[in-house]
Amino acid sequence: MGARLLMLSLAWMGRGRAVFEDRPLDMQECFERLTKEWELIEVDEDYGVCVSRIVPALLVQLREAVFGGLESTGGGAQFGGRLPISEGALDLYQAMDLEIAEAWSCTFPGQVPVVDAPERLLSQLVAVAGVDEIVSVSVAEQRVEERGTHREHWWVERSLVEFPVGALLQRWVRQVMDFFSPPRTREIQAACVQCGEEWDWKSSVVGEAVPFRVFVFVQDSHGNTLGVRCFACGLSWGRDKLLLIARAIGAEVPGWARRNYRAHALSL
Description:
Blueprint: H1 2-12, H2 27-35, E1 38-44, E2 49-55, H3 58-67, H4 87-107, H5 118-128, E3 134-145, E4 153-164, H6 165-180, E5 184-187, E6 199-203, E7 209-213, E8 215-219, E9 225-230, E10 236-238, H7 242-248, H8 255-267
Antiparallel strand pairs: 1-2, 3-4, 5-8, 6-7, 8-9, 9-10
């Protein structure tokens, strides 16, 4: 099954519904996705034609998700003590608000921002910083102890991580997109090509330890394969690495899949 799914994923490369997903966004495009309305182009499978729709700025969508559209402007400080409609949206917005402010401070050392709206800080950041300029931001990571046991314990730990500014904007775009359209996963019936792990354990709703495969495809809401991920070692591979992974796990790749893979790789 893992080999068959991998072949199907190779066959679908280059046929993504959203045009902007077929290549990495540059820094200016990420800034515009986060702060301005933008056009999303998708393929209508029933009629085989491209259709477009206008999508609100990602930061606006996230901010409105916090309070159901009752708050439409301003930074995290304006939320005050009101109870959020979506705690997940609030957590992500506050994390991004902090990271944007920290990235701004790296680019403007010793200065204090006179605005708190993340869109304005982003505008100043993108206007001055180079795409490869390194900034440090506090990134929250989930940690777990004794996973799969009745003593399983999760907590959040923040640590400083360095990013090129361009990669950081891509990360923010991806985080908001994943929040509204969480990527799905499909099992690969093989061990991870990096760490060699194949199974892990998680707790069911009744507290029982349940096994699950750690090596998976990551897919968007349309079923397009975005890449491969291992939940054990945390490594991810993009669509351009699918053929290499197929060979590593011993999956037979037919000629038509190899041709689609090469065509996709040349288009990047």
